[in-house]
Amino acid sequence: MIEQKIFINPKFSLFSLKRIGIIATLATFSLPLSTQAENLNHLNQLLATKKCSKCDLSGAGLVMANLSGANLAGTDFTQANLSQANLTGADLRGANLAGASLYGANLAGANLEGANLEGTDLRNTHLTSANLADIDLNNAYLEGAQGILDYAGKPEQFHLWGLREAERGNYQVAIEHYNRAISIDREFAPAYLALGLTQFHLDRRAKAKINGELAAKLFQEQENQVGYQATQEFLQGIEMISQIEERQAKNKRGAGSFGQFVGSIGSLLFQFLF
């Protein structure tokens, strides 16, 4: 049995994620090339030959650049803007892409083995058949990225990405990440619980209950008492809300007490989503 770590505690306060201090690089960065002769030389070399291994291209503006098949191994792209660039088949092994924007870039078939993707904007990128071995995607922005293969992340990583997307309000993307975690490990209980919570938030209560029950069963089998108790409280919360709604429907009153009840279990059911 493999012990699984989850992000919850018996009081559900751990449903609330700690705000993760990641600063996305979303703006265009353009350093004055006239004051950086070496960078200008490297940039010219890249555009002329598509060969610039271990170059200094930090802060470079390469929006929509055609760099397909380029040799960029070990190149420094920190804070560079490669949004919508064509990097199909590019060699980016060991490249430093920390804080760089690759929003909408085409990285199909690119080799990113060992690249630094700390705070890298990979939203809406195409990563089909890309080599993502030996990299850490935990602090990269991945909303809308296509083609991330299962081997690129452990279930814990996809679960964490799901929690982050849920915190940002991107619930459907969060669900996709939870499902990916489950596809890698069918017994990864935290993903079932997070999936159930997100579905409950979207008012998909039947599915939320099913996934909550699956999580409870797995936590119990894995002798994870914290996870099991947390899941039981989640399921009890669903039942309590349903009962209150039924009473409201019959009596046509009690909306105030219902609102008070929901507020009292905010940390239980919703807090981690915001």
Structure description:
This protein is mainly alpha-helical and 274 residues long. It folds into 2 domains: 129 residues, Pectate Lyase C-like, CATH 2.160.20; 90 residues. The protein is built from 8 helices and no strands. The N terminus and C terminus are likely disordered.
Give the secondary structure arrangement, pairings included:
Elements (H helix, E strand, L loop, with lengths): L36 H13 L105 H13 L3 H14 L4 H13 L3 H17 L3 H27 L3 H10 L1 H4 L5
Helix pairs in contact: 2-3, 2-4, 3-4, 4-5, 4-6, 5-6, 6-7
Keywords, separated by commas or semicolons:
274 residues, mainly alpha, Pectate Lyase C-like, 2 domains, elongated, disordered N terminus, disordered C terminus
Count of all domains: 2
Mean pLDDT: 79
Low-confidence spans = 1-38, 254-274
Tell me the series of helices and strands, N- to C-terminal.
Answer: HHHHHHHH
Q: Describe the main β-sheet briefly.
A: none
Fraction in beta strands: under 5%
Q: How many alpha or pi helices?
A: 8
Amino-to-carboxy terminus distance: 32 Å
Radius of gyration: 23 Å
- Which secondary-structure class do the elements indicate? mainly alpha
* CATH topology (fold) name of the largest domain: Pectate Lyase C-like
What is the CATH class of the largest domain? Mainly Beta
How many beta-strand segments? 0
Examine the secondary-structure arrangement and name the CATH architecture of the largest domain: 3 Solenoid
Corresponding CATH superfamily of the largest domain: E3 ubiquitin-protein ligase SopA
Rough outline: elongated
Share of helix among residues? 40-55%
